[in-house]
Design brief:
241 residues; mainly alpha; globular
Length: 241
């Protein structure tokens, strides 16, 4: 656990040292704030206190931001040779993967925490479904965990950051859009199968204020599988070396 925290702290510091974290936070807060308060918000036009505009735009913003954060995590270290140096120490492949996963997740959590003033301000303007808001944040974290694991997997199979970014988006599109489209195109068990694979189905369920164990298990399973693939690729690379 100590090794995981050391790696996570190093990666998190590197985000802030290279200004990546600041850029992410400013852009994320700017985009989410614009759509929450100035564009498409129900607060002023309908008189309804809700954070749904924020969750709707953050849903897509994180889809693009997370691959941008994870694309260099393993790809750049493999290209520069620092990954081999890291793995020669008493650190396992799992610790490397989990440490980098934790660092990106911590940055996303920081970004979400900085949006809490939106919540408190909207709550002061009128009655708001507090349970739905907190579950919306919970769903955002689960969704982020899934995208991070996919991004680390993409970063583990290439030395090129751009390829890693595009591959992460490509895989993410299947879970976010294509499976949802296929679910609507088929009926019966086939439609239910694609509906279960669709990330949108499970996220929408949680964001509506309904917590189902199958939704939580879905996100945790995809996250674990993505991290397992990343660790497996690192292990095979070590054997080959």
């Amino acid at each position: 656990m100590k090794s995981i925290w050391i790696i996570a702290k190093r990666e998190l510091n590197s985000f802030f040292d290279s200004l990546i974290a600041y850029i992410l936070l400013v852009v994320f807060l700017g985009i989410s704030g614009f759509f929450t308060w100035l564009y498409g918000s129900d607060i002023f036009f309908v008189g309804q206190a809700t954070l749904q505009p924020f969750f709707s735009i953050a849903y897509w913003t994180l889809f693009f931001f997370i691959p941008a954060l994870t694309m260099r995590m393993l790809a750049e270290e493999k290209k520069s040779g620092t990954l081999e140096l890291l793995l020669t120490k008493s650190i396992s492949d799992w610790q490397v993967v989990l440490g980098k996963f934790t660092a990106v997740l911590m940055l996303i959590v920081i970004a979400l925490l900085l949006t809490l003033p939106y919540y408190f301000t909207i709550a002061s303007l009128g009655p708001i479904d507090h349970g739905a808001v907190w579950l919306g944040y919970f769903g955002m974290i689960l969704m982020s965990m899934t995208f991070i694991s996919i991004g680390l997997f993409a970063s583990s199979i290439t030395n090129n950051q751009i390829v890693s970014f595009l591959l992460s988006l490509f895989v993410g599109v299947f879970f976010l859009i294509i499976f949802d489209v296929l679910a609507g195109s088929f009926t019966g068990e086939t439609g239910q199968f694609f509906s279960y694979l669709s990330l949108a189905t499970h996220y929408d369920s949680i964001s509506r204020g309904v917590v189902d164990s199958k939704d939580v298990i879905y996100f945790l399973s995809i996250t674990f599988f993505g991290l397992l693939l990343a660790e497996s690729i690192l292990s095979k690379r070590n054997i080959a070396d």
